[in-house]
Amino acid sequence: MKQPIKPNQEAARLEALREYNILDTPSEQAYDDFTSLASYICQVPIALISLVDAERQWFKSKIGLEANQTARNISFCGYTILSDQTLVVKDALCDKRFCDNPLVTSAPSIRFYAGAPLITPAGYVIGSLCVIDQKPRDLSDSQKLALEALGRQVVTQLELRRISSNLANALDKIKQIEGLVPICSYCKGVRNDQGYWSTVEKFIQQHSDVEFTHGVCDGCIRQHFPDVAEVLLELPEDE
Fold it and tell me: What would the mean pLDDT of 77-87 be, rounded to a whole number?
């Protein structure tokens, strides 16, 4: 079963998903709370936080379903990520996109599906918060709004996780740098952990994302390039 994709966005979308480092992680209460609320508010037996990878949809949280993932080419969420609007399928057997889908014709026998897209701050749809029933139905306006609000909170939780991880990595780098740095008293070279000497720039670049540009300070211009200094620094002739 071939699903449509947005080829001009797919690589960037997958990169955005992987930046969260969330795939194949254990279940977490923070995410399970969202699926529990979605199931309760929408009055359905199944609720999922589905993240759509290149070839699969993986469930960070699930209520009422045993599977941890399914192939992307049979997923309902593969259609949800094509838009920033909630996808509602009232009766999958009456929808030509899904009527012969194995998730419809066999277990879990999906008939109703509603998926709120999980949209990153950069605008990429990486998955959905979806609710599923085994009988045809619809969402009320208030249920749909609540599902969308919960979806936004899932993304907020993912962002907090990403930012926290980045801060932890930054702190680790700072701790490496803030220790005693072995530096040569004469040339100011720095000895690395392997015992080799290199420049200060290389040492800092190895332990951070800092990039360097080079120039010459006023004092060094005066000392090493006095003729240039008279012009650039407008030095008095008696200096």
Answer: 96
User: Exposed/middle/buried for 75, CB within 10 Å: 0-12, 13-18, 19+?
Assistant: buried
- Is there a domain that residue 219 lies in? no
pTM of the model: 0.72
Domain CATH code at residue 82: 3.30.450.40
Residue 96 lies in a domain: yes
235 part of a folded domain: no
CB 81 within 8 A of CB 52: yes
**Residue-averaged pLDDT of the chain:** 86
> What is the residue-wise DSSP string for 105-140?
HSTT---EEEEEEEE-TTS-EEEEEEEEESS-----
Q: How far apart are the first and last CA of the chain?
A: 82
Beta strands 125-133 and 112-119: pairing type? antiparallel
The H-assigned helical ranges of the chain are 7-18, 29-42, 77-80, 102-105, 141-178, 200-206, 218-224, 226-232
- Domain holding 30, by residue range, is 7-166
pLDDT of residue 8: 80
**Per-residue pLDDT tens digits for 108-118:** 999 999 999 99
3-state secondary structure of 157: helix
Q: What is the DSSP letter of 96?
A: T
**Would you call the peptide bond into 108 cis, given omega within 30 degrees of 0 as the criterion?**
yes
Query: Residue 212 falls within a domain, yes or no?
Result: no
The phi-psi region of residue 125 (left if phi > 0; otherwise alpha if psi is between -120 and 50; otherwise beta) is: beta
Tell me phi and psi for residue 3, to 5 degrees: -105, 145
